[in-house]
Amino acid sequence: MNGNKLIIETQRLFIKAIQPVNAETVYNYRIDPRVNKYQNWESISYESILKFINENLKTEFNSPDKWKQFGIYTKDNDFLIGDTGLHFLNPQNSIVEIGFTLSHENQGFGYGSEAVKSIIYFLFKILKKHRIFASVDPQNNKSISLLKRVGFKQEAYFKKSLFIKENWVDDVIFALLNEEYQPNEEDYKYYCIKE
Ligand SMILES: CC(C)(COP(=O)(O)OP(=O)(O)OC[C@H]1O[C@@H](n2cnc3c(N)ncnc32)[C@H](O)[C@@H]1OP(=O)(O)O)[C@@H](O)C(=O)NCCC(=O)NCCS
Which of 86, 87, 83, 97 has its CA nearest to residue 27? Predict the structure, then answer.
């Protein structure tokens, strides 16, 4: 499957490869301290974002030990409102770590949950992955609420295990197994996956 051609369509969104033309938008929301508070993105530049987008387009999709980033676009105007990263992991390339970010102006509308739910559906139902997990700062309440909303359960709490912005911070692991997954038919009646 070519990740650069993949499009997941939901009720209000498209999830698809981020393009170089979107670099400025990505840069603007990633330098926003309200957005990057719990992430390691302090010293980014427009050039580093553009380079990242170009390299990401060359990164093989669904390949062990590789991250692949996708944009979250609103369907009505094809505007980039955030992104989501998928980290494909061994053993058997059956485990995926997920990360997600929305621009500040686009938080509070359910776009993050809508995007993540469709990705969970895609990873479990189409790619037949075994486990999806996310690593989150315990103080990142919005992210934890999103993870719970889409069905993830807390599995682990690692004290001071990540070094972010010159500090050791706690790390909480939320996860969902394919065998526990209960897709909501109301959600997936909208899904359309093209490659
Ligand atoms: C984590 C993040 C994506 C969550 O964004 P979010 O918009 O709060 O998450 P959701 O998409 O689940 O939206 C839920 C909110 O939208 C509201 N909402 C409005 N319309 C809605 C709709 N049609 N459907 C669902 N929810 C809706 C909900 O009531 C909820 O609001 P509340 O938080 O005030 O209760 C966002 O905070 C973010 O980008 N943070 C910075 C990056 C980051 O830390 N990422 C996590 C690293 S793993």
Answer: 83
Average pLDDT over residues 28-49: 90
pTM over 0.85: yes
Return the CATH architecture of domain 7-194: 3-Layer(aba) Sandwich (3.40)
Peptide bond into 91 cis (omega under 30): yes
Q: For the sheet containing 79-89, what is the strand order?
A: 153-164, 167-177, 131-136, 95-102, 79-89, 66-74, 13-17, 7-9, 192-194
Q: Is residue 190 predicted with pLDDT exceeding 70? A: yes
Q: Is the CB of 148 under 6 A from ligand 1?
A: no
Please state the domain extents for the chain: 7-194
Residue 178 DSSP label: G
State the distance from the centre of ligand 1 to the C-alpha of 112, rounded, in angstroms: 5
Ligand 1 centre from 49 Cα, in Å? 24
Of the candidates 118, 98, 135, 85, the one whose C-alpha atom is nearest the C-alpha of residue 13 is 118
Asked whether 99 lines ligand 1 (CB < 6 A), one says yes
Q: Round to whole Å and give the CA distance between 171 and 183.
A: 27
Assign 14 to helix, strand or coil: strand
Report, as an integer, the average pLDDT of 34-56. Answer: 90
